[in-house]
Every structure is written in C-alpha cells, then in structure tokens.
Amino acid sequence: MARRNAVQALYQWLVTGQSPAEIEPGFISDQSFAGVDMAYFRQLISDVPRQQATIESRLQGHAERTLDSVDPVERAILLIGGYELLFRPDIPARVALDEAVQMAHIFGAEEGYRFINGVLDRLAADDPGQDATGSRR
Question: How far apart are CA 61 and CA 35, in angstroms?
C-alpha cells in the first residue's frame, strides 16, 4: 500500500511540480491511508525526487524512448522501481519488479506494464549486485 500511495503522490509531484512536503498531507489525512507503512511511503516520496537524476540516467540507458515522453504515472512507477533496484538492496529485485508491474496494471496504460517490466528488468540485469536470477548478492 505504501508503493500504491507513493505512485499517486509522485504522479502528482511530476504533474504539478509541488514538493513532496506539500503533497504528503493530502495523503496521510485520507481515511484510506490507514494501514499503510507510513515510514516507507515517506521514504519513497522524499528519496525518489532526491535521487531522480541518478535513477533516470540509469533508466534511460534501458528505455527505447526518453523518459520525458513517458506518461507521468508510468514514469512515477519507473522511478519507484528504479529507486528500489538501485538504492534498496534489502528488497529483492524480483519483488521490486513484480510490484512495479502490479502498479502498472493498476494505474498505467493497457500495455504500459510491458514497457515498465522491460526497462526495469534490463536495469536489474545490468546491476552488478544481482545474480542471473535477479536476486541480490
């Protein structure tokens, strides 16, 4: 649930240019936020924007088009998946990939999950901290 809410918050950040600090209260005051891992939600909406340039430069090498041309909700999903692959070694790569694809099925365009899966799968394969199965070493 933290990822799901973070996708929506980061989408808002990408579209409106509001800071994560401005966006956060609108999410945590919502009744549907009960049961969400607040610490991880906050980490995602603060760390992903902070690491955006690094994440996007690594993702861009694996995408067939510029990230600026990607739908904002799918870009938010890519940023979260890229963040987890690059900066969260405690999260297995397969989990990060599966969660991103699931978010793409929920929020993305009909075939958007294929693009997201392809880009993140290539990023995971390129990561020297991964073995051939996508597990962390």
Answer: 36
